[in-house]
Design goal:
Helix content is about 50%, strand content about 10%. It is α/β, with parallel strands linked by helices. Helix 5 links the parallel strand 1 and strand 2. Helix 1 crosses helix 2 and helix 10 crosses helix 11. The relative contact order is 0.12. It binds zinc ion. Zinc ion binds next to loops.
Length: about 400
């Protein structure tokens, strides 16, 4: 273990030296080691060793540094690839998994990295992969994304996925909303946003919590009726607890009125389910067994678990993925889209963009992303990478 760690220190020292005229510096080497799991309190323990290694690396010629770096990197790389994916619990009988993009734009490398892990598990256990386009927020939808997501999913997952569009399933969400009202687990709240925020802060019950079943059903119908509540006039809330230790869990919203025109559904619907309702319903209906999602969905997973519980359903096994922070790559589809509209880029497949459209055009194969995702594996640790490092690794996988 210690030996391995020393090799890593040496590899980072060599890498840093090669990037800076043969001279490695302690600071950048230590911050790279944080990515490998070094804890701040351990810097004291390893500090001396790190300085020694840096000193020895700096005494080599550039040629020697390069040679040794290549050799070390190959070794570390081979070992990591051989490890492969860890097993999932209770997966022997097959798995049902999903990847759930929002149609704000097509895929970029961040999507590919998250999605490919689920895809690899589905392949490993001969399961089923749903690509679920989450478009129940009629705002911020980029219409060409439907076509692009479908096309790029076919490419990335070898046409094995099943595409589901949430806005085509509205009646199912409405059914579940009524089911939750019947169970006394949801109520229609007509308090203003400010008022409700205040109640959350004071851990006080909202007066609408006392609505009877009949009152809730009447108000729910009034949400659906165009002559009923106005936009912002009422929301359907989950009755969790107004005293929950995490304020974000206190009677969170399930559905709201949004009169924005939807690109596929037009003005057919005025009440739209929010993410936690739509996701729970679909995960129940599609019989999801395992879910791998980004770490920033931890609170949402907690909310969805509550919905599963009141409906008497077993919550799927869930793992969270750390984020890869790309230091110098723009991964916001909204920002990329705006730049394309301003003609700063030729299109989604512009060579300078980290989109799948661009990388496909440049000749990268889906395999390269699979291998990359396999190496990252199921890890909750955040990683920091720069563009150069990412493409060096991707090129490496693409060659194989
Ligand atoms: Zn209320």
């Amino acid at each position: 273990m210690i030996k391995d760690f020393e090799k890593k220190i040496r590899a980072y020292a060599l890498k840093n030296a090669l990037a800076h005229n043969g001279v490695a510096m302690q600071g950048p080497v230590v911050s790279s080691l944080f990515n490998e799991g070094l804890k701040p309190e351990e810097v004291g323990k390893y500090g001396k060793k790190i300085s020694e290694i840096i000193l020895s690396v700096n005494s080599l010629s550039a040629e020697e540094q390069e040679k040794e770096f290549e050799k070390l990197e190959k070794k570390v790389h081979e070992r990591e690839v051989r490890e492969g994916l860890s097993e999932l619990p209770n997966a022997k009988k097959g798995v049902v998994m999903r990847f759930a993009p929002s149609p704000s734009g097509p895929y970029h490398v961040g999507h590919a990295m998250t999605a490919c892990i689920s895809y690899l598990y589905v392949k490993k256990y001969k399961g089923k992969l749903y690509v679920r386009i989450e478009d129940t927020n009629p705002e911020n939808i980029y219409t060409p994304a439907y076509r692009m997501i479908k096309e790029e999913s076919d490419w990335l997952f070898d046409k094995t996925e099943k595409i589901v569009i949430q806005s085509e399933r509205m009646e199912i969400y409405y059914d579940y909303a009524e089911k939750l009202i019947e169970k006394g687990a949801a109520y229609v709240c007509t308090c203003s946003q400010e008022k409700f925020k205040e109640l959350v802060e004071k851990k006080k019950d909202c007066p609408c919590r006392k609505n009877t079943f009949k009152e809730n059903m009447e108000k729910w119908k009034k949400m659906l009726d165009e002559k009923g509540f106005k936009e912002g006039g009422a929301v359907l809330r989950f009755k969790s607890s107004m005293k929950h230790k995490n304020p974000a869990m206190r009677d969170f919203p399930l559905a709201r009125i949004n009169l924005h025109k939807h690109p596929l559904q037009g003005t057919k619907y005025r009440v739209w389910p929010l993410m936690n309702l739509a996701v729970s319903v679909d995960d129940i209906e599609m019989k999801m067994t395992h879910i791998i999602r980004a770490k920033d969905h931890r609170d949402n997973a907690e909310r969805q678990k509550m919905i599963f519980q009141v409906l008497g359903k077993r919550f799927p096994w869930t793992a969270f993925l750390g984020r890869i922070h790309f230091k110098d790559m723009e991964l916001s589809t909204t920002k990329i889209r705006q730049a394309i509209e301003k003609k700063e880029y030729k299109g989604w497949d512009d060579k300078r963009l980290p989109t799948i459209a661009s990388l496909r055009k440049q000749g990268y194969k889906p395999n390269a992303f699979w291998k990359f995702a396999e190496q990252v594996g199921l890890s909750e640790n955040d990683k920091i990478m720069d563009r150069e490092e990412f493409f060096r690794l991707l090129d490496n996988f693409n060659r194989k």
